[in-house]
Amino acid sequence: GAPTISIFLKPPGVIPPGGSTTICCSYQGDSGSFVLYKDGQQLRTLMGHGSRAEFPISNATQEDRGGYHCHYLEGGTVLARSETLDIKVEEFQLPQPVLSVLPGCEVAAGAYVAFRCTIAHSTAGCFLYLEGQTGDLGFFSKEQNYFNLSRVHKGNEGRYSCQCFTRDRLFHWSACSNTLDLVVR
Predict the structure, then answer these.
(1) Distance of CA 180 to CAs 23, 69, 105, 161, Å?
(2) What is the tens place of the pLDDT at every residue in 10-61?
(3) pLDDT in tens, 98-147
(4) Is 88 exposed, middle or buried (0-12, 13-18, 19+ CB in 10 A)?
(5) Domains plus CATH for the chain?
(6) 3-class secondary structure, 91
(7) Taking every annotated instance into account, which residue ranges of this chain make up the domain Ig-like (predicted)?
(8) pTM
(9) Residues 183, 180: Cα–Cα separation, whole Å
């Protein structure tokens, strides 16, 4: 298929009303422009910023919810498209979870790593995020509140966080945990 653009949120996760985040689009080109779309409508264009464009969202409202994607153009021709990034804006009503990693934040290549997301709520499920990835990496249920990575490699390095929610009649969200930086030696 056609080359794709990497699209992700920095920081990742659900945004609270009034909060901020940045939509990052990255592609291996250097003379084109990035165009950001929301729900199929063109929003903004950033010209010739090298291989990455950043589209900030500040003071988020319900109007910022939706599906976002990027195109990369050179000379008016679309060279690449991103996946759709779904942005949610929700009130945070749950306590902030705590992310931990075993055996620790620095591990040898090939090691077995377990992320654990702990929250003071009996029915919450949680998502694990890696900054730079389009969506979540995994899901923690209340029955299994850890996420395993076996035989880690350099590609697993990065900044991790988790965010929790409940599915009562409505979704209720927590803020994201503090981040952990995983280093693979």
Answers:
(1) 21, 27, 7, 7
(2) 999 999 999 999 999 999 877 789 999 999 999 988 876 668 899 999 999 9
(3) 999 999 999 999 999 999 999 988 788 899 999 998 888 888 776 777 88
(4) middle
(5) 6-87 (2.60.40.10), 92-184 (2.60.40.10)
(6) coil
(7) 3-86
(8) 0.88
(9) 10
